[in-house]
Amino acid sequence: MKSKTVKKLLTLTMSAILTVGCLTGCGGNAGGADAGSTAASDDGGDAAAADDGAAADDGADEAAASGDIVDFTFFGGMPGTEINSGNNEIQDLIAEKTGVRLKETWLTGQTVSEAIGSIIASGTYPDLIDGGDGCVDLYNEGVLVPWDEYLESGKYPNLTNYYTEAEWDQFRQDDGHIYWCNVFQNTKGEPTGTTHNDEAFWVQARVLAWDNYPEIKTLDQYFDLLERYAEANPKVKDANGNEMDVIPYTCLCDDWRYFCIENAPQFLDGYPNDGSVIVDFDGKDPTIVDYNTTETAKKYFKKLNEEYAKGIVDKDFGTQKYDDYIAKLSNGNVLGMCDQYWDFMQINDSFRNTGLENEGCNYVPLGLTIEEGMENRWHTYGDTLNVASGIAVTTDCSDPDLAFSFLNAMLDQDIHNLRFWGVEGVDYLVDDDGLFYRTDEIRANISDPKYRADHLCFYSYLPQYGGTSDDGKNANLPEEQPSEFFNGLAKPMQDCFTAYGAKTYPDLIGSVKEDVNATHPWFPMWSFSNNLDTSTEGGVAWTKMGETKHEWLPKVVMSSNFDSEWENYMKAYNDCKPEDFLAEMQEELDRRVAANK
Predict the structure, then answer these.
(1) Which domains does the chain have, with CATH numbers?
(2) Which of 327, 355, 523, 591 lies in the 20 to 30 Å Cα band around 425?
(3) pTM score, two decimals?
């Protein structure tokens, strides 16, 4: 329950925000103008952007002033946590500013394709949708509103300038129109990244502490550490003090998340996350390479096979569902896994709430290679443009103009601060230098599930920025605020960072520091392969390859005769005609290279 002080602060803050909203309606929104002028080419462009920002915000403020708040619906094709919509304090603040309250629903108990298929079959669509891999299916059904006229109208400068014109063009579908916008990996101002949102081999901090923080560089060294720790510590205690058997290593093969087991070979060979292929370009024209059939792939799966035979790899890895996997990680007895951070980051709140973070259960990323001395590129520096999916407005939306006004407002700095930092004086404080920070008490509130549901409103799949806010001081995302990042870590994690001389997660990984947009103009190739379907020979092969890997990789890992089973797998894999897929990927690679010359 909130204190009277908190409620008073919220009341005062709401009054202040509404006052600013009225003033903004008369004179234009500074946040919108700043965002609009970022990409402007001259003073005239700046002025136009500022005027357009005022025009767009006037509509939202008029709706708010009249008390006429529209309830929109949103479906996200991924698991998520619903807030108490209609009874959430920050959501109400945002609704007062924008004239829109968004009811979010998330994927539960279905695959993305099943959920999108059900929505299409029903013929009824939410106002806004992020269909993940199903965006193409929604486009093919003709149920998405084209963005072009809205981006070109000048009314929504934050959206127009969210990407460059060339970047927006990459979102165009085969009919020449833009239908969605990916909202992640977009930086404004100076980069402030402290987290590693990408893939890695992860290990609990307490495992590293137990071995006096060793340098772990290779796959063999990683499993050697897990084996030794598990032998010395076969039991650990859960949050209630009950003993559990340790699970040294688990992995996920469930649905599209089978990337957790299948794509490590590209990273182990030192390549960045092109997702579906390796792009070899050292001293020659960029060439597509199939990472599924390399010597490193065979060594990696043979290692998993050996560790499975020793009892190091979770015996249930091949059949566990995503929810089972997350529950298992949350128990604190899994020492390590390979995964993308965004895929399991919610367990950090669980560790904080149960006290397991103080036992060193949080995970540390390691940038492993197959041999020592190789460069690694597990961490992606620079923004990654994913054009395969994103937020879209459907033709069932009763007021597309208001929908685009709402999306535009999500990038206004004051609303962005509300979404991710919260209410000043309640969810963060400001020091004498203007820097935002949180106390331990505030951090405890932020991680409390009830507080989040009642008070916080991230609108996490709507447009957002990383990097530096318009004030030039603060990070747009709290987890990227350097002081807040370190102070928010549990002591075992702080000790780990200190031991390795690291200030950020990327420091721990030690990847090559390069801007992928400059060195890899085709990156990432998965933004093309994610949208392949069976309308082309390459798409047919891609579908069959995925089905075959789903079936065979767990069998290869669990086999009592690895070499024989690997041969059987390779035969089944080659029957998929991967050469058709690789040829289509090479064609797209050549096109991207030519477009950037």
Answers:
(1) 4-191+384-482 (3.40.190.10), 199-378+489-516 (3.40.190.10), 527-595 (no CATH)
(2) 355
(3) 0.77
